[in-house]
Amino acid sequence: MLSTYTYPKFAYRRPAELDRAGAVDRHPVIVVGAGPVGLAAAIDLAQQGQRVLLLDDDDTVSVGSRGLCYAKRALEVLDRLGCGDAVVDKGVTWNVGRTFFGNDEVFRFNLLPEEDHHRPGMVNLQQYYLEEFMVKRAQQLPNLELRWKHKVAGVEPRGDGARLQVETADGNYALDADWLIVADGARSPIRRMLGLDIEGKVFQDRFLIADVVMKADFPAERWFWFDPPFHPGQSVLLHREADNVWRIDFQLGWDADPEEEKKPEKVVPRIKAMLGPEHEFDLEWVSVYTFQCRRMQRFRHGRVLFVGDAAHQVSPFGARGANSGIQDTDNLAWKLLLVMRGLAPDSLLDTYSDERVAAADENLMNSTRSTDFITPKSQVSKDFRDAVLTLAREHGFARGLVNSGRLSVPSHLSRSVLGTPDADAFAGAMTPGAPLADAPVRCDGREGWLLGHSGDAFVLLLFANSPAEVDAATLAALRALGDAAIPVQTRLIVSEEGAAPAGCRVLLDRKGLAAQRLDAQPGTAYLLRPDQHVAARWRRFDAGRVRAAVARATCNA
């Protein structure tokens, strides 16, 4: 039990299948695991009209705060899923991180150094709140069925899907799925049932998580210490959470006894040494963890698709776990929908694995480097790290080498076969494969954000000085794109107000930031994928090139 949170209990319901002897119902999509990643997959599909069944072997949200930091890109995906406001309103917003060596600050960073973005660099929120908000959203969707205390005990892949054996308190039953999305966590029983390997590195170190309730005037920042006087020879991390809860991570070393270290008589003195006598606190939750950096070879196995920790695991330094998993589902959902609707070939789902394996490798590389810096494995490595930290006090070149956890950033799918290479010269980061940069825009007299006008469909951003500049031939071509089998919606981005042409939504770029961040000028066109990544861009709109880019982005070329 926690003093700051009351766990919800979700109702178990006897499955109707048990009252029909031998019946095996078929579902187009079954998702296993109602953590943040499984819920994201189910919500994404269901809110776009797909019927989904979500199974979980528990009847509440995660125990303990667990996942904590949700990065800007994950928040933008949660916005699209209808959960972003709840997370940001309840959570603790922060952008600044500070790193200390002993008592001295040696490095500082800002995750969002420029203004005019809808979402901050990071929001801290206990995982149980995130899951509760996502369950509430899931319950609003009539074509999403949640079954609590339904444990998947067996999976048999088949050419047209998979058969699941499910255990309940009232008995066992079978289900067939056209498509199975596996989000059952790092230990993934389904991955083990299928005999699938996950490869990588286990780090021989232990860390203590202590969530404490206290009122303190520390700023909402990430503070990380190397070799602090209150915990010599090790590292410590401090984060603020909701409800006046503070997360403290203490490095313990591999030889520490996990059960002993969790005892209050061991934990409380550590925290008192850190905070000093002036800060009173109460223990809220304690855990000891080790971590791994590893992934499956492939995330797709026929009609079984792995997402989140079931597919890949990283160290907690850098907040790359849940953030990466949410991006998995963001990548997968639109591709699965197109394949299920017969609008794209089965091979499109291979690109889910290809793109997200590449993203996982980037996360694993950064996570491994962070962990090697935080927990050096030899005296030579430790001497190098301490030299870097000492130099960083006064020398800028050394600060760039300080690594207390390279924080989660969105994946740039620059090597994806789905992107159309640039034929024109552009400046900036919005290359094919990049996630769209946000900017403030005005639409129909209301202030909003560019990302709020994209997602769930292919979208063409067409820049002009004013709506009147768009000629009749261009409007006819845009309408034809909107009526295609895979429709392309148009957003006309202008610097001067005017009446919206038929079939176009007009976005007023009053500050010019959308044009600036996309290096756009009148006539520039950007094609966005349904997951808000750039598919292609041109200096001049050409309907044929747009159709070709859509075909390429859906493996229809």
Major sheet: 8 strands, mixed
The proportion of residues in beta strands is: 25-35%
- Mean pLDDT, nearest integer? 93
Content-based structural category: alpha/beta
What's the total helix number? 14
Q: C-alpha Rg, in Å? A: 25 Å
CATH topology of the domain at 26-91 and 116-197 and 293-352: FAD/NAD(P)-binding domain
CATH structural class of the domain at 26-91 and 116-197 and 293-352 = Alpha Beta
CATH homology-level superfamily of the domain at 26-91 and 116-197 and 293-352: FAD/NAD(P)-binding domain
Number of beta strands: 26
Shape: globular
CATH architecture of the domain at 26-91 and 116-197 and 293-352: 3-Layer(bba) Sandwich
Q: What distance separates the N and C termini?
A: 55 Å
Helical fraction equals 25-40%
Oligomer: single chain
Query: Which regions are unreliable across 5 or more consecutive residues at pLDDT < 50?
Result: none
Describe the structure.
By secondary structure, the chain is of the alpha/beta class. Among the domains are: 26-91 and 116-197 and 293-352, FAD/NAD(P)-binding domain (3-Layer(bba) Sandwich); 440-553, 3-Layer(aba) Sandwich (Glutaredoxin). 27% of the residues lie in helices and 29% in strands. The protein contains 14 helices and 26 strands. The chain has helices at 36-46, 72-80, 84-90, 127-139, 189-193, 258-261, 264-275, 321-340, 348-374, 379-392, 396-399, 472-482, 513-517, 543-553; strands at residues 25-32, 52-56, 69-71, 92-94, 96-101, 104-110, 122-124, 144-148, 151-158, 161-168, 171-182, 198-213, 222-226, 235-240, 245-251, 282-296, 300-301, 304-306, 312-313, 440-443, 446-449, 458-464, 488-494, 504-508, 525-528, 534-538. The strands form five sheets. Strands 1, 2, 8, 9, 10, 11, 17 and 18 form an eight-stranded mixed sheet that branches. Strands 6-5-13-14-15-12-16-19 form an eight-stranded mixed sheet. A five-stranded mixed sheet has the order 24-23-22-25-26, covered by helices on one side. The longest helix is centred in the middle third of the chain and has 27 residues, at 348-374. The protein is globular.
